[in-house]
Amino acid sequence: MIESSAQAPDRSRVLVADDAESVRALYEKLLTAEGYQVVSVGDGVAALEAVRVYCPDVILLDVGMPGMDGIEVCRRLKDDPATRLTPVVLVTGLSDLADRIKGIEAGADDFLAKPVHPHELRARVASLSRMKHLTDALDSAEDAFMALALTIEARDPTTNGHCERLAASAVLMGRTLGLAAADLDALHRGGYLHDLGKVGVPDSVLLKPGPLTDVEFALMKRHTEIGDSLCAPLQSLRHVRPIVRSHHERLDGSGYPNGLRGDEIPALAHIVGVVDVYDAMTSDRPYRRALNAEEATRFLLCEVDQRRFSKVYVEALLDTLRLNASLPVR
User: What SS3 state is found at 93?
Assistant: First the structure.
């Protein structure tokens, strides 16, 4: 049964999972005195359900619960993208080194040794609660950037859906290339945020139906640097920033903003650049009709011949297009 103390919902919430009722009562007494809302359960299955219902800020798990033990609960929480950033503390005996090693492998954030000292319990929970609130704040900022990117895209009706298509297609291309999960995540977020800096480009330039003047093109090129600067304060976007800044760089040094050449161009930025051009070529613009797939393919292969795009990445995109008939690139 789930037991919850009646505290204000805006206070930090702690989930306590222990099969000993006396231990749960002690933790609840100590933590509610510090202003926390405490939810307590007696087994691992109930702990997973309580996490889903109450979304705690910190989770205390007894390792030795019957049935599903604390280590297995921890592993499941850390495998779930929705809960992997929630701090988990495993409570175990001082001499249980094997449990600690298993806990580390399961992704535990901290450990408490039995018998738990009240001051240590309060200190650990306070520290991890602060960490969770900072993580939530960063997530909120990143979500705001995502929303801003889509708002910027909505300024130009001819680019409707571009960010979504680019994010999905870049990830599929990354899978074709066998990239690691962290790189696929960066490609997904980079696909949405690559043009974030266009917030600093005037509508008169962004929405111009014809070719840009040299001055206007110089303004347009600044969007890569503006986007990079906007992402810079967020540590969570450190792997996305090279995509935002360098997706218009080209192998021959003709790209912008830094005129990078060859291997100087970050690989993920190069991937997004290839997909970005293909999507642009196959989308209608006020000054030209959309190219069909065959025409866009010829354009990309020409870019390879001109040493502006990598043959490896262009072939990876074409393989991805062939393997994914429902690929959201037009």
Answer: strand
